[in-house]
């Protein structure tokens, strides 16, 4: 069974998950003989994915009651100057309690930038990302890739392990002095997807 999970983000991140439950009961037939299989008890495993933002320190779980999108705010308070960058990250833990192999892949999509108070700052900003194993790796400037419509997908994340998306927001060296003091809201969509739950594949 494959259960896609969708996360949505707001400045810089948010999440949402819809749980699926499959129950099976009925008969098993072999040639002309048949026997009835009792339905038994079916329990739904959780597909919990926990998010921790930095620098805000906000924590949330992507499993939101009613399937509504949750919100995780990275709250980047540092200022950026022309030719330089500011950084933020989100650590993501695959907390599923499903039996057997239950790996997940996380994908961050292209950023949406919205100017605040009729500013023009957004056109001078570039949002890049990289996927690493620890938040300590986010501070190094190497490995960042500009986020396009194709997005950036993490390596497979097994149960009880984590992955990290690092974000880099860079201001063009050609930005005019008139953008000084302006602000922009950056929204990033994140998708969590269950990978095949058996070693041999789907």
Give the beta-strand count. Answer: 16
Give a quick account of the main beta sheet: strands, pairing sense, barrel closure.
6 strands, antiparallel
What structural class do you assign from the helix and strand content? mainly beta
Q: Which value, in Å, is the CA radius of gyration? A: 21 Å
How many structural units, i.e. domains?
1
Task: Write down the secondary-structure element order.
Answer: EEEEEEEEEEEEEEEE
**Fraction of residues in helices?**
under 10%
Task: Give the strand content.
Answer: 35-45%
Distance between the termini: 9 Å
Uncertain spans, ≥5 residues at pLDDT below 50?
Answer: 1-35
On the 0-100 scale, what is the average pLDDT?
77
Which term fits the overall shape? elongated
Number of helices: 0
Q: Taking strands numbered 1, 2, ... along the chain, how are they ordered across the largest sheet?
A: 6-5-8-14-11-12
Characterization of this structure:
With 202 residues, the chain is mainly beta. The chain has one domain. The protein has no helices and 16 strands. The strands form four sheets. The chain has a six-stranded antiparallel sheet, with no helix packed on it. It has a four-stranded antiparallel sheet with strand order 1-16-9-13, with no helix packed on it. Strands 7-2-15-10 form a four-stranded mixed sheet, with no helix packed on it. The chain is elongated and about 75 Å long. Residues 1-35 have low confidence and may be disordered.
